[in-house]
Amino acid sequence: MSATVGDLGPYLALVLVGFLPNEIWRLLGIAVARGLDEGSELLVWVRAVATAVLAGIIAQLLLTPPSALAGTALTVRVAAVVAGFLAFLTIRRSVFAGVLAGEVALVLGALVWPVLST
Amino acid sequence: MIDSPVSSAAAFRLGLKAAAQSVFIYVLFGTFIGYGALCHDLGFSLPWGIASTILIWAGPAQVIVVTALGSGLPAGEAAIAVTLSGIRLLPMVAALLPLIKTPATRFWHLVVPAHLTAVSMWVESLRIAPRLPRERRLAFCNGLGFGLMAPALVATVLGFILAQRLPPLLAAAVLFLTPISLLVSVARNSRELVDKLAFGLGLVLTPVFALAKLDLALLLGSVLAGTLAYIVHRGVAFLREAASDDAPAATQPTERPGDKS
After folding, report:
1. Quick check: A43 and B210 CB within 8 A?
2. What does the alpha-carbon distance between residue B39 and residue B66 come to, in Å, rounded to a whole number?
3. Of these four, A33, A36, B202, B241, which has the most CB atoms within 10 Å of its CB?
4. A34 to chain B: nearest residue by CA?
5. B98–A30 C-beta distance less than 8 A
């Protein structure tokens, strides 16, 4: 368990540490899907959990962002997400409009309200 | 809205086209430019970077693998972190495959779409595949998955070659693509009450659990949010059924309101 990439070689490490621990869930997903029909109530629950997972990932990315995004204030990130969502709702439910508005809000917000933590 | 594809090859091409028109093309491109640069900076080769995108095909897991292995973390710890980040793939695969399989579909037919399942592919498949004839959906999803993976591979190579630090503000904007595009696309896909509730509750519960320093906050928050949303969904369905059981009795002599419209 204490082997490092140097001991394993980069490609063996890729398969053992990256590929297998990730792919196992896709294979388990196939197994679970065997018992599910398109109209089944269990599928509604499974889809609700999968949707909530995405929501959780979004929230985590905003709260504890990776490297360069951490150089923006939390308030700016949240405000940019809200701006993007409002643009999506008001401009014909367009994903593109929502993403663009969110990005513009983030860049403007970061310029107006810089955080010197990078 | 969509012309029904006449063959599996046509459905595959339709999937490629859907990928080219997806907002996730931009997101993946931005994300994987960052990933390619990360591979370079942490001392991995370009073929390794390409192989990792093909084999893992899940942004968060890939970032964990390169940062953990690149910084000399024990392989066992990195494997556990990847295992935890991959759990989200299970409900996604389990929710997608029942939509695209037919009675003739075999296990090995599902291995490719399951491997191609990632957040971007899942969101677009769930939106578009139900509009297609069932026997063409699997080929469509494969086309969509490959159509999304191809630009991600190009971006991995580009990022590796560029590998120079982007200006901080541009780098922040590239990283912000992931949460903002996910938020808006999932919101577009959430048409039913149960999905909207699961989405809203997930946005709130996971960070609350994370702030409370609970282990597996994402897993706990998501299962609780999804389950609460499902309970409300069942409750509403139950009340509607009860109401429609009463309604005909009360309005029996007159026409039903639904008949005229």
Report:
1. no
2. 6
3. B202
4. B98
5. no
Distances in Å between the alpha carbon of B256 and those of A5, B15, B250? 71, 43, 11
Neighboring chain B residues of A67 at a CB cutoff of 8 Å: 171, 175
- Angle at which helices B168-189 and A74-90 cross, to 10°: 40
* Per-residue CA distances from B192 to A6, A53, B166, B211, B225 (Å): 50, 17, 40, 29, 15
Closest CB to A55: pick one of B101, B107, B202.
B202
Furthest C-alpha separation in chain B: 80
Residue with tokens 């699961």: B198
**Could you give the count of Cα atoms lying within 13 Å of A83 in the half-sphere of its Cβ?**
17
Closest residue on chain A to B75 (Cα): A4
Q: Could A48 and B197 be called an inter-chain contact, meaning their C-beta atoms sit closer than 8 Å?
A: yes
Picking from A20, A54, A111 by the largest number of B CB atoms within 10 A of its own CB, the best residue to mutate is A54
Query: Does B56 contact A25 at a Cβ distance shorter than 8 Å?
Result: no
Cα dihedral B113, B119, B121, B122 sign: positive
CA atoms of A58 and A82, how far apart (whole Å):
13
Mean pLDDT of B129-151: 97
Nearest CA in chain B to A66: B175
CB count in 10 Å sphere of residue A37: 12
Neighboring chain A residues of B198 at a CB cutoff of 8 Å: 47-49, 51-52, 55
- The model's pTM is 0.78
Q: Could you tell me which residues come within 8 angstroms of residue B41 by beta carbon, excluding any fewer than 6 positions away? A: B70, B163
User: Could you tell me the two tokens for B128?
Assistant: 């578009």
Residue the block writes with tokens 């996730």: B24
Establish whether this prediction's ipTM goes over 0.85. Answer: no
Question: Chain A: nearest CA to B185, how far in angstroms?
Answer: 6
Phi, psi angles (nearest 5°) of residue A29: -60, -40
Q: What type of residue is A105?
A: A
In tens, the pLDDT along A91-117 reads 999 888 999 999 999 999 999 987 754
Tell which of B183, B194, B216 to mutate to test the A interface (max A CBs under 10 Å).
B183
Q: Tens digits of per-residue pLDDT, B228-255?
A: 999 999 999 999 988 887 765 544 444 4
